[in-house]
């Protein structure tokens, strides 16, 4: 089994404007793209760039409020329900024009003064509402765990916590987003992470550890991780969400060629 590869345009090709990164991803041989928060770019403009490059938009994040600035975000904060509702409405409007295949809802950090149980209850309810809303557009919803070494206080940080969350949401349009980098940073063996989430994985992202660089720049055993995905029957996308080294993009993309040679990635134009 091999998988299509998506370029995360929030991190890759940073020297270019966002819409030009789409064409760069196509030229590099990626099969699709994902973007963390594309909302500063008009949806019609992004859709036009995607159509010109003949690439699908695989995933975007729901707006997350102050999360990027160090705050708790929106999805698991009961006092911010109105802000979450506005973010959901914004994402629905954007998605209607940009047509992502999936929307990722970030759990965010546990807010000061909010008990974990209350935060989780809020997150579960918001994931169900989001899954209902996007089901009408034929768009899947996912949620991810992020390691607490890079982001202290993140609400969901390991594969077991993520599996428990998805089970609690119990919605056919809500799945787990598995990020190899974050699970490895939490000290998990990736085959074990895959096993815990097997049957619930809707999207996979990757970067090497410990530096979140391109595959081959660190210590991650990608062969073991991808073999585990094969055994789990995963049939979705693999998305490259790593930080490229300065002026080394072309050299770093050798991993993509190697992955195709090894049969991990679908044959493309690279």
From TrEMBL:
Keyword Isomerase: yes
Descriptive protein name: Hydroxypyruvate isomerase
Entries under SUPFAM superfamilies matching the protein: Xylose isomerase-like
Organism phylogeny: Bacteria, Pseudomonadati, Pseudomonadota, Gammaproteobacteria, Pseudomonadales
Organism name: Pseudomonas abyssi
The entry's keywords: Isomerase, Pyruvate
Active site (UniProt): 144, 241
Similarity comment: Belongs to the hyi family.
GO BP: any one term: glyoxylate metabolic process
GO molecular-function term, one example from the UniProt record: hydroxypyruvate isomerase activity
């Amino acid at each position: 089994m091999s998988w299509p590869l998506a370029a995360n345009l929030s991190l890759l090709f940073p020297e270019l404007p966002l819409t030009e990164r789409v064409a760069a991803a196509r030229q590099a041989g990626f099969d699709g793209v994902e973007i963390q928060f594309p909302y500063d770019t008009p949806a019609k403009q992004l859709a036009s760039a995607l159509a010109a490059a003949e690439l699908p938009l695989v995933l975007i994040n729901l707006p997350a409020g102050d999360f990027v600035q160090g705050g708790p975000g929106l999805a698991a904060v009961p006092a911010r329900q109105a802000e979450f509702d506005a973010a959901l409405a914004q994402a629905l409007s954007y998605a209607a024009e940009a047509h992502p295949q999936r929307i990722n809802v970030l759990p965010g950090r546990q807010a000061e003064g909010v008990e974990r149980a209350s935060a989780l209850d809020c997150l579960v309810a918001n994931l169900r509402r989001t899954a209902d809303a996007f089901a009408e557009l034929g768009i899947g919803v996912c949620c991810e765990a992020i390691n607490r070494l890079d982001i202290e206080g993140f609400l969901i940080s390991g594969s077991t916590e993520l599996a428990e969350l998805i089970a609690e949401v119990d919605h056919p349009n809500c799945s787990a987003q598995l990020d190899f980098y974050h699970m490895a940073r939490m000290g998990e063996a990736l085959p074990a992470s895959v096993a815990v989430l097997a049957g619930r994985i809707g999207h996979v992202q990757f970067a090497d550890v410990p530096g979140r660089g391109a595959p081959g720049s660190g210590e991650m055993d990608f062969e073991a991780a991808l073999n585990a995905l094969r055994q789990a029957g995963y049939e979705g996308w693999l998305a490259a969400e790593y930080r490229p080294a300065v002026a080394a993009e072309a050299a770093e993309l050798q991993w993509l060629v190697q992955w195709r040679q090894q049969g991990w990635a679908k044959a493309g134009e690279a």
